[in-house]
């Protein structure tokens, strides 16, 4: 049996409740303009025809522990019953989130300004957990057994950036086979990102966008610290910062600091005025 089938079966055996709502979406967030070896993440996705996990790419908008014996490796071993312990990096799942609350910014905006929407045909290969796998969760689900998990998440009082139900897409995430559409932040209109998106072979949509005014000093400093706020102020243009501005300035700065600035935008940004 394929590793992904063993993993899905293991999670399914621990899942309860009814199926995902008919209008739910599964979104895989990423920053399309971040660079990998001289090309953007979106260019790499277009060239390979697939979205790959941190184990393959070595980059992430979360923690960087995807290596044998690392935290991500250990968490996956626990959640998926050891199904991937001896598998190649490309065999491992990619991470997303369930969007069942009808939000305009997808299931987990903290992990990227844009997202791939997973096609329904791939849902039988999706597993779920609450909370995030970093917390070593005990509650699990699948697309067919997700009701109890969603109810638990909706009843929990957590920060808006942390209230997502984590999703794992097993068996690969191929663009032509598994992606319904690409949804981009509108700050990328008229840029190279829009051009590459048009060549991806799937419909392209735009969400309303997020833009942060960096004059909310006390609130922003308390959320991610003075260093993140200082970097946001440094990078802002006319007192505002969005996904494109942050991405253009990302190289040359600590990726973890850039990630925290994005958290400020994702948490406190308002609909972009375009």
Order of helices and strands: HEEEHEHHEEEEHEEHEHEEHHEHHE
Model regions low in confidence, pLDDT < 50 over at least 5 residues: none
What's the helical proportion of residues?
A: 25-40%
Q: Widest sheet: strand order?
A: 8-7-9-5-1-6-11-12
By DSSP (H or I, 4+ residues per run), the number of helices equals 11
According to DSSP, the number of beta strands is: 15
The secondary-structure class comes to: alpha+beta
Q: Outline, from the CA principal axes? A: globular
Pfam family, one: DUF3626
InterPro entries: DUF3626
Protein name: DUF3626 domain-containing protein
Organism: Agrococcus pavilionensis RW1
Verbal overview:
The chain is 33% helix and 21% strand. The model has no long low-confidence stretch (mean pLDDT 93). The termini are far apart. Helix 7 (192-198) links the parallel strand 11 (179-184) and strand 12. It is globular, with a radius of gyration of 18 Å. It is built from eleven helices and 15 strands. The strands form four sheets. Strands 8-7-9-5-1-6-11-12 form an eight-stranded mixed sheet. The chain has a three-stranded antiparallel sheet with strand order 14-13-15. The protein is of the alpha+beta class and 274 residues long. Helix 8 (217-224) crosses helix 9 and helix 9 packs across helix 11. The protein has two domains: 3-206, no CATH class; 211-269. It has helices spanning 3-12, 41-48, 54-57, 71-79, 147-155, 175-178, 192-198, 217-224, 226-235, 243-250, 255-268; strands at 25-30, 35-36, 39-40, 50-51, 94-99, 114-118, 126-130, 139-142, 165-169, 173-174, 179-184, 204-206, 210-213, 240-242, 270-271.
């Amino acid at each position: 049996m394929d590793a992904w089938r063993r993993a899905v079966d293991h999670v399914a055996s621990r899942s309860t409740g009814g199926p995902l709502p008919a209008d739910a979406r599964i979104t895989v967030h990423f920053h399309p303009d971040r660079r990998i070896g001289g090309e953007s993440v979106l260019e790499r996705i277009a060239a390979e025809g697939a979205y790959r996990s941190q184990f393959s790419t070595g980059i992430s908008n979360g923690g960087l522990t995807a290596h044998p014996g690392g935290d991500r490796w250990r968490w996956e071993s626990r959640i998926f019953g050891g199904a991937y312990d001896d598998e190649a990096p490309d065999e491992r799942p990619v991470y997303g989130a369930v969007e069942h609350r009808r939000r305009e910014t997808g299931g987990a905006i903290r992990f990227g300004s844009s997202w791939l929407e997973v096609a329904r045909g791939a849902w039988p290969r999706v597993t779920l957990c609450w909370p995030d796998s970093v917390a070593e969760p005990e509650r699990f689900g699948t697309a067919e057994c997700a009701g109890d998990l969603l109810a638990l998440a909706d009843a929990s009082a957590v920060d808006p950036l942390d209230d997502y139900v984590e999703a794992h897409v097993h068996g690969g995430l191929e663009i032509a086979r598994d992606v319904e559409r690409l949804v981009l932040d509108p700050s990328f209109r008229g840029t190279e990102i829009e051009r590459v998106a048009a060549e991806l072979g799937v419909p392209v949509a735009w969400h309303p966008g997020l833009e942060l005014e960096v004059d909310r000093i006390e609130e922003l400093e308390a959320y991610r610290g003075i260093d993140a706020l200082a970097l946001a102020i440094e990078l802002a243009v006319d007192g505002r910062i969005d996904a494109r501005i942050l991405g253009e300035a990302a190289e040359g700065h600590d990726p973890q600091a850039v990630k925290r600035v994005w958290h400020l935008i994702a948490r406190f940004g308002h609909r972009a005025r375009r």
